[in-house]
Structure formats: C-alpha cells, structure tokens
Amino acid sequence: MSAIDAHIHLDMYNEASAKSIIADLEASQVQALIVVSRHLDSCKATQQLKSLAPDRIFAAYGFHPEQELPTETQVETLIGWMSEHVSEMVAVGEIGLPYYSRHEVEEAGKAFDVAPYIQLLERFLQLAAQWDKPVVLHAVYEDAEIVCDLLAKYGLKRAHFHWFKGPSQTVERMIEAGYVISITPDVLYEDEIRTLVRKYPLELMMVETDGPWPFEGPFACEETHPRMIHEVIGQIADLKGKSVQDTAAILLQNTCRFYQLS
C-alpha cells in the first residue's frame, strides 16, 4: 500500500541517512515525501535533496518558529529567495509559533515576547495567500487559536497543522474550517493523539514522521524512517474501525489533493 510522509525534515539527517531514505522509498512503499524547511540554509539543503528525486520529494520553504528570531535582513533575504523559487515549492512551511520555546522560558521565570513571532508568521501567511500556496503549521494548544484567527484574517483555507495537539474547542474549530492535521508514530502509544484520531475526520487527515525526531514505544532506539507511516496507518484504521486498505487509500488521496500532487 503506497503512502506519503506528509512532514519530514530530510535536511536534518546526515547525508548518508538522507540518501539511504531516498533510495529506500520504493521498497518502503512510500510514494513521496513532503520535505519542510527551517531557515534559508535549510531551504537550500531541501532544494538540493529535491534534485536527487524530483518525482518523490516535494519541497516546502519557510522558517521554523522554535528558534531565535531572524534579523530583518535575514527575513528579507529568505523571502527574496522563496520568491525566486515559488514554482518549485508545494507549500510555505514550516511556519508557526514557538509554543515549546516560550514555555521553557516562562517555566524558568522569565518573560517571553511572542508578538514578534506573530508578526513574522503574518508575513509568511500574507505571502502564502499572495502565492496561492498552502501552509504547513507548527501550532499547538493555545497557539493554534491564534493561528486559526490569522488564517481567517488572510483568507487561507489550505492549512496543515502537523503533529497537532490541542483542546476540544480548537479541534472543533479546525474541523469546521476544513484544516488538515497529520498523525505521527506516537499514535501507537500516546492516548492524547489516539483521542484526536477518533474525533478528527479521516478525510482531513494525513500521516507523517517529523523525522528525524525520535519516537518511543515500538520505535524506541530506531532512527525515524518514512516506512514507519505504515504502522501509523494501521493504528488509524484500527481507531476508526476501517480496513487498512481503505484507510491508506483515503490518507493518500487526502495528501495528494491537499498538496496538489499528480
């Protein structure tokens, strides 16, 4: 059963591992990878990896929020580069808000100003609207509500919340808006994610690894590989009470439709 890993940081693997993953895709029954980026150098590395398998690697360019804010010069340089490569990217991403960084700082008793991150996110959302591109979002818990407001503000309907976690009212809002989420291998052992899968419509769902992020449970001590998405699909099928074949077909169709893959 063919499947697509809808969110992976391929540039964060060492060169040998990245090339091995690409070489393994057919044998792993992985049709394609949606490869996201974290900053300008990451975008360029993603572009280079895409050149190794242009029919299987689909690039998203952006700035990951869980890092120090870029300078205005860095932002302008990144946006300029992205503008030159709009035709080769399937989405703007990964973008979003720094939930984990903010909480780490606040738990240490320090203040964290999220306003500049919101302003940077707005710039990318405006570009996505201008370029008619979907967005790949890092936005969990209360940050997701802020992002939902911004998506509505800029009229963006194609939004992919990767590895989403959040309260039921936010989940309901996202479902109503038709936003897509993707499920990681932690669905095999995390009750929070299993509950989300039971509630979220299968037609608004994809699967991902977020590699090279490591996982626990049956994947402990393994390097994260796109082939893991097949076990994710099996778990989703079980939670939804559907056959693995039907579930895999729907998830594949969802991903191809969202990212406009032929």
Indicate the structural class. Answer: alpha/beta
Over all CA atoms, what is the radius of gyration? 17 Å
What portion of residues belong to β-strands? 15-25%
Name the helicity range. 40-55%
N-to-C SSE series?
EHEHEHEHHEHEHEHEHH
Number of helices: 10
Order of adjacent strands in the largest pleated sheet: 1-2-3-4-5-6-7-8
**Uncertain parts:** none
Mean pLDDT: 98
| First-to-last CA distance | 17 Å
Brief digest:
The protein is α/β, with parallel strands linked by helices. It is globular, with a radius of gyration of 17 Å.
Secondary-structure topology with pairs:
Blueprint: E1 3-8, H1 15-24, E2 30-35, H2 40-52, E3 57-61, H3 72-84, E4 89-96, H4 99-107, H5 115-131, E5 135-138, H6 142-153, E6 159-162, H7 168-177, E7 180-183, H8 191-199, E8 205-207, H9 229-240, H10 244-259
Parallel strand pairs: 1-2, 2-3, 3-4, 4-5, 5-6, 6-7, 7-8
How would you describe what is shown here?
With 262 residues, the chain is an alpha/beta fold. Helices cover 46% and strands 15% of the residues. The chain contains ten helices and eight strands. The chain has an eight-stranded parallel β-sheet. Helix 2 links the parallel strand 2 (30-35) and strand 3. Helix 9 packs across helix 10 (244-259).
Annotation keywords:
262 residues; alpha/beta; 8-stranded parallel β-sheet; 10 helices
